[in-house]
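Structure record:
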Amino acid sequence: MFATDRAPGVYYQTVDAGSPPVTPLRTDIAALIGIADRGPVDVPVPIESWQQFVSWFGGCTAVGYLGYAVRGFLENGGRRCWAVRVASNDPLLGAAASSATLSGPTGEVWLVRASTAGSWGDQVTLGLRERNTAQTHTTIHALDGSWSQVPSIAGFGRGTLVRVSQPSMPAPAWRVVSLADPVRGRLYWRHPDPAARLRYDAPLLGFHPNEPVLLESVDYRMLVSERGRLIRVCEGLSLLPESPRYGPVVLGAPRPPIDQDTGQARATSPEPVVIEELRTNTAQLGGLSVDPAVSIRLSGGRAGLSALTAYDFVGEPSGPDDSPTAVAAKRRGLRAVEEISEIGLLAVPDILIRPIEVNPTAPPPPCVPDPCLDEPAPALGPVPVPYVEQPPVFSTADVYRVQSEMVRQCEHRRDRFALLDPPYDVSVDHENGIRGVLDWRSRFDTSYAALSYPWLRVADPVGGPGSVRTIPGSGHVAGICAGTDLDTGVHRAPANRTVEWALGASLVVSDEQHAALNQRGVNALRTVAGRGLRLLGARTVSSDPDWRFVNVRRLMAMVEEALGIACQWAVFEPNGFLTRARATMSVTFFLDGLHEAGMLAGATPEESFFVKCDLDNNPLAARDIGQLLVEVGVAPSQPFEFVLLRVGRVTDSIEVRAGGGPMGATGTEA
């Protein structure tokens, strides 16, 4: 309570009369959509390191490009991206998780399945061990069987499953400790307080009074291995739902990577397996049938690739009257990242998938050692995995459909930029040259997308040492864009940077071809003598010269989004001079910061931008209907695409003059 609530007078209160500051938004975060070995399907997962991607999605795979794209993104300067795995949800051929059933004397108890769908789960084996952390003998019991006297209650607590055995008993009995009394040294099978009893409470009767009774606590240790390598040890799994170590709780359904309450990304990785309860009556006590010498293998997994379609990459918009189930069914691929506001780049390389041909049954060729040579050392590297299920090769119509949906989402959201790849055939066509990619370029006319050519050749971690694979370059290009944004700013053209984690391009682009590609808005990936492989182009696929450059469109998208978010405070404010002045000041400060950072053209702020919000553009008629208009004009900086050095003789000296402009055919920047 303040003094103003008690005594009359004049008091001071600090009130911020200014408007909230406008801050630039991140533009370096990418969304990469494609095929992976494992991981949640159609669920965006934030990735900030390669190890994090491996723990969620399993790394690179021979049947997809997503792992290569993510690694290319991270190697070229990207720090954060959202990865989305696509797979078919066909009832018969769609993605399914491997599983195995654990049984006991009373029947099926638990279903253990791989945490995510995919054939990877068929390589998982389980080792089950029974644990008896507490054991004791007793001969003293209550006449009604409600308790037993024990030397020590250590290891026995409320809710502990206990196996009761005696030499003369034909079969052990199962009980649950309802109360452990350390003062009297008693284990109560029926709680003295009826209100505190468990549903398992039952008297311990039917044993021989002259023989000791063995009491053993029972829980389980589960050893999870993948391809013979131990990856997880789960201790103390209980069969009782009331226990904090209840198996389906400890290894329950995988938590989503995004916290629904806070909206923040979770840093944890998924468990390799999950447990589901199969018993209809969990009050019927019993144990699991355990054989320590037997490994239980999961089976029945499917990757969901053979029935993959273009719809799995694009989904469809949901209606306002759709149920949550219908919304989830339509949120596939691109739709899964549509509502994530921090995404600034978009790539879908796997619509162009060219799976590697693998024969899982063909034996390796025989090796005849040379008796004159020493015994060769064992080969190092990853063990090839036999991929039985492969995705289809999508038609040109399917590729165009997916890339058109990418462009549509970018134009609708106005906060992201699509990175397109040409089809495989035109990227390896030595005979027809660039004719095919120019034809593909003619399908698009938008400032929200860029097309890079040709594909890239990278060292293949799946195929082993010396293997090379040709992949689309959109993941690497996304990393170059992100690295440029982080190093300099979104205003700089993402070009003339070395392409990391790449051996070369799938085709050699000549100077003449580069000139033709650049004029048509195709960004070339080519090797420059002495400078390595570089992205030498920063043009959009727009025919509008005002939106020719990638950095101009992305800069304006950032400005529009930042101003749109920062000006939300003005809604329902009085449409008067003070509100207009605060809006003008807020926008001006923001644009002045961009000018000082070199993001805008012009030597002075007056040459770089203008902000107008007065009675001229807010007449009485507009104010009467509740409108406030703020006119903003900016002059984004455009890159030099070529530098011209003029060398000439002036009397007895040599004069060199440099000139350039935002046009040309090379990616060299002054």
About this structure: The chain has four domains: 30-90+305-372+386-552, 99-130+220-297, 133-217, 571-634. Residues 357-363, 379-386, 661-670 have pLDDT under 50 and may be disordered.
